[in-house]
């Protein structure tokens, strides 16, 4: 049985999904959960891309102890230096450096000849090897590259010091057979390949990312790259939970396993979905809400007689708990703390107390508190931004009637402690709220996306709203949770604005520190 390394790029390729915008605190929470899941490598970001990315990679490197942390670099000394600066104090600094190798990319994007690409790849890998014990080199768009050219460049970068070679299907063009053949070909033809790990990185443009990743395993890949829930550029990346569960369920066929703790999958999926605002489709393999629902009479009859008639994956395997009712309004702080730890939340005493108060408030209004409610309360607490940043919703009143014009009256407190009050109308209640808030903000703001979800279930379920906005010329996103959909909507909008203000304040602080102010 071979062991396949799992390389998670949720925080890099996944974060490149349109509309996804995680702040550093949220990225750290995702990284901690990926560590609990047991991934071998966490690609924490692209440090040269922005100050925010640099800081997030640095802080993740300082926080994570049981997974290796890596950062992405183009074949450029400046990019490699940025990864080194962000990871140099970690136990095993690891670099992921890439350059495109397909004729299309070399000609049109890089405007370089194949020989120039080889030269650049070798020069940058050699440079990186002076600092990093592990250098992973990727041949971007390997799927559309000439196989003999791949063999040639791989031999050279291995000589230069790369010990992991990744062959991405950057545009999701490959079929399982062709992608598998590419791995077999390089294994058989690169003369110095022994001891080098081969990695697969698939995109899902044709819906084949998981199948292609598994074909790579069949043909000698030692590492699979992907993201939780398959999020990522365009149609996304290979969904790691699908690859890992397929390897477990079809161990008989693949004779390969991973080190993942599969019963952490559902929790990881829920966290990524909540923080990115990217909902998991109900019919999604492994983690969709319907993945274990048997609707038709024939199936239900079969399941009652013998579960294996229609169920190849048990919910327990991925950590779906069948006992869902957890705490009630009489539950004490001790039970709450234990449940939080069981759900993977290790909050400070202060945050735990605040989360407990929120739980008690909710328990007064809601009959049953289930895991999903607690998960939502605890994640919000763990990732909330400081109280002192931005605008706080003090009071809100909304008037709606079929024959009236919806009107929202809102009272906000700004960061200086000043109260503002205003009323505006809209064609619906949410629009009235957003018109009012926008008129009270100091900079122009525009709603780009609005999504609403119920947490848990039942008519008294919590509402969770996710919004994307343009505020003061930049894009931002936010979440709001409340029992009432209108309150959740207002909170989400203010959360998005406050996140942007916090980011800007942090930037200003850094500039001031640098300037010695
Ligand atoms: O898809 C791709 O080619 C990538 C590389 C940067 C590895 O994400
Ligand atoms: Zn990619």
TrEMBL record:
One of its GO terms (biological process) is L-leucine biosynthetic process. Residues 4-266 form the Pyruvate carboxyltransferase domain. Signal peptide: none annotated. It holds the Pfam family HCS_D2. Keywords: Amino-acid biosynthesis, Branched-chain amino acid biosynthesis, Cytoplasm, Leucine biosynthesis, Manganese, Metal-binding, Transferase. One of its GO terms (molecular function) is 2-isopropylmalate synthase activity. This is 2-isopropylmalate synthase. InterPro entries: 2-IPM_HCS-like, 2-isopropylmalate_synth_dimer, AIPM/Hcit_synth_CS, Aldolase_TIM, LeuA/HCS_post-cat, LeuA_allosteric_dom_sf, LeuA_bact_synth, PYR_CT. Homodimer. Residues 392-517 are annotated as: Regulatory domain. GO terms for cellular component: cytoplasm. Its EC number is 2.3.3.13. The lineage of its organism: Bacteria, Bacillati, Bacillota, Bacilli, Bacillales. The keyword Manganese applies. The gene is leuA. Its cofactor is Mn(2+). NCBIfam families: leuA_bact (TIGR00973), PRK00915.1-3 (NF002086), PRK00915.1-5 (NF002088). Catalyzes the condensation of the acetyl group of acetyl-CoA with 3-methyl-2-oxobutanoate (2-ketoisovalerate) to form 3-carboxy-3-hydroxy-4-methylpentanoate (2-isopropylmalate). Mn(2+) binds at residues 13, 201, 203, 237. It catalyses: 3-methyl-2-oxobutanoate + acetyl-CoA + H2O = (2S)-2-isopropylmalate + CoA + H(+).
């Amino acid at each position: 049985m071979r062991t396949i390394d799992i390389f998670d790029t949720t925080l890099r390729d996944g974060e490149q999904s349109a509309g996804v915008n995680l702040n550093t605190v949220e990225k750290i929470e995702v990284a901690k959960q990926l560590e609990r899941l047991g991934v071998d490598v966490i690609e924490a970001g692209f440090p040269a891309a922005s100050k925010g990315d640099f800081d997030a990679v640095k802080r993740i490197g300082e926080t994570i102890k049981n997974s290796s942390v890596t950062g992405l670099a183009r074949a450029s000394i400046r990019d490699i230096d940025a990864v080194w600066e962000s990871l140099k104090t970690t136990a095993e600094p690891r670099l992921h450096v890439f350059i495109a190798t397909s004729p299309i990319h070399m000609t049109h994007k890089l405007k370089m000849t194949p020989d120039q690409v080889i030269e650049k790849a070798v020069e940058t890998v050699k440079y990186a090897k002076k600092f990093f014990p592990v250098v992973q080199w990727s041949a971007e768009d390997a799927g559309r590259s000439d196989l003999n050219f791949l063999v040639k460049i791989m031999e050279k970068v291995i000589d230069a010091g790369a010990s992991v070679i990744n062959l991405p299907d950057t545009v999701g063009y490959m079929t399982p057979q062709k992608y598998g053949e590419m791995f077999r070909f390089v294994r058989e033809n690169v003369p110095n390949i022994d001891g080098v790990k081969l990695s697969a990185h698939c995109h899902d443009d044709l819906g084949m990312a998981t199948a292609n990743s598994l074909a790579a395993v069949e043909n000698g890949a030692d590492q699979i790259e992907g993201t939780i829930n398959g999020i990522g550029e365009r149609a996304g990346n290979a969904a790691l939970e699908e690859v890992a569960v397929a390897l477990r369920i079809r161990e008989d066929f693949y004779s390969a396993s991973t080190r993942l703790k599969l019963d952490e999958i559902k929790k990881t999926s829920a966290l990524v979905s909540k923080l990115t605002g990217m909902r998991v489709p109900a019919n999604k393999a492994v983690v969709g809400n319907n993945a274990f629902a048997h609707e038709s009479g024939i199936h239900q009859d079969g399941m009652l007689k013998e579960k294996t008639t229609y169920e190849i994956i048990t919910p327990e395997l991925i950590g779906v708990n069948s006992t869902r009712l957890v705490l009630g309004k009489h539950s004490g702080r001790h039970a709450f703390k234990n449940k939080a730890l069981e759900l993977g939340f290790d909050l400070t005493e202060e945050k735990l107390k605040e989360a407990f108060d929120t739980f008690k408030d909710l328990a007064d209004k809601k009959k049953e508190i289930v895991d999903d409610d607690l998960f939502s309360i605890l994640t919000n607490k763990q990732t909330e931004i400081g109280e002192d940043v931005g605008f706080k919703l003090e009071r809100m009143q909304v008037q709606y009637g079929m024959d009236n014009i919806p009107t929202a009256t809102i009272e906000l407190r700004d960061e200086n402690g000043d109260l503002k009050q205003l009323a505006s109308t809209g064609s619906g209640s949410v629009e009235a709220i957003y018109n009012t808030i926008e008129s009270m903000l100091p900079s122009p703001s525009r709603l780009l996306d609005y999504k609403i979800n119920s947490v848990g279930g039942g008519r008294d379920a919590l509402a969770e709203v996710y919004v994307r906005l343009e505020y003061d010329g930049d894009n931002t996103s936010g979440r709001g949770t409340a029992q009432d959909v209108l309150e959740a909507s207002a909170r989400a909008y203010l959360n998005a604005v406050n996140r942007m203000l916090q980011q800007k304040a942090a930037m200003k602080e850094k500039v001031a520190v640098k300037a010695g102010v």
